[in-house]
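Q: Got a minute? One more chain.
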Amino acid sequence: MQQKPLKIVYLTPALYMAGGVERVLTLKANYFAEQFGYDVTIILTEGKGKPLAYPLSDKIKVINLDINFEELWTCSFFKKVLVYLRKQRQYKRKLKAELMRIRPDITDSLLRREINFVSQIKDGSKKIGELHVNRSNYRNFEANDTNWLKELFAKLWMWNLITHLKQLDRFIVLTEEDKVAWTELNNVVAIHNPVSFKPVSVSSLQEKRVIAVGRYVYQKGFDLLLRAWKKVEEQCPDWELVIYGDGDRSSYEQLLGELGINTNRCHLNAPTSQIQKEYVNSSVFAVSSRFEGLSMALLEAAACGLPIVSFACPCGPRDLITDGVDGLLVEKENVDAMADSLIKVMTSPEIREAMGNAILKKAEQFKIEHIAMQWKKLFESL
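A: Always. Here it is, folded:
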C-alpha cells in the first residue's frame, strides 16, 4: 500500500522580501515538494497580493492570513501594544482554524509571533521551530542603541522564548557552535543552510580582487573591513575590494573619505542579480561580520571556490572554515589581524590555489541534496 506523502506546514511572516531566510525556505520547500513528493503548505501573515521574491514550485500551497503585523511599524508605543494584542488574537484564531483543517504531520515555525501559542494548537502535528540567527544575537540591539530598559526587556524576552522552545518537539539551529549555547534545552538539532545555487563555473583565483557581500548594517562589520583595507591597499595597490549589498551606504562612503582609501580600487555596490559571476571574477572572499547565523554569502563563495578570510565571529564561520586549510579565521574585530590575513592570501597564488581546492571539497557538504536528507531524517524520526 502506498504511503501518504508527508504533510508539512511552514509558518513565516512573508515571502515578498528578498532575504536569506526567504531564500532558504523557498529552496527547501521546493526540494521537498519536487524531490520527496511532500505535501507542503506555507502560511504567511504579511504581504497579501505582493509577488514572491523567489520562484516557488506550483506544487506548494501558499495561504496568506493577511494579519498585517507590519502596521505596527507606524504606530505610537501605546497604540502598538493594543494593535499587537488584537492582531495576535486574530492570528491565533486564524492559524488554529487552518491547522485543524489541513491536519499536517509537521508544523515548522520560523519562530516569529506564533511561537507563543503554536504548541497549544492540538491539530495532531509535531511542532518544530528553526532559528536563522545565533542565540547571543537574537533580538540584538545595535551597539549604540541599548539601555538598561532594553537589556531588561531582552532578558525577559529570552526567558519567555526558552519556555516556549521547551514545548517544541525539535528546535533546529544552523551551527554546532550555536547548538551548545542553548544549555536549558534538550531538543536542539543543528542543520546547516544549503548553498542557494549550483555554480556554473568556479574562480580561477587569478583576478586581483577581494569580494564581500551583505547588508550595509552594523552586524556585517564593513566599517572594520574598510579600516583593514586601508592597511591592505598600501601593500597591495594593484588589488581591488568590491562589496555588494542592500541598505544605506552613506556612512561607509563617508568612512572611505575619512580613511583616504583609493575609491578607484574600492567599490561599495548595491545588490546584483549576477552575484555568482562576481564571485567567479574574484579571488578572495572577506567576512568582517560581528556575528552571523550561517551566512548564505559564505556558502555561495565557498561553492565558487574562493578562499575565505573571516573573523571568527559567533556563529557560522567555524562550522565551514578549517583555519589554514580552506581559509583563515581571524580574531573577531581585530582589524590589523584581518589586514595581515588578507595580505597573506592575496600575495600567495599557491595559498589561494590550495585553499580554493579545499573549500570546494568542503562546499559539497552544503549542497541541497545533502541538507535535504538531514531534514528528511528529522521529519521521519518524528
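A: Residues 209-366 form a domain with the Rossmann fold fold (CATH 3.40.50.2000).
Q: Perfect, thanks.
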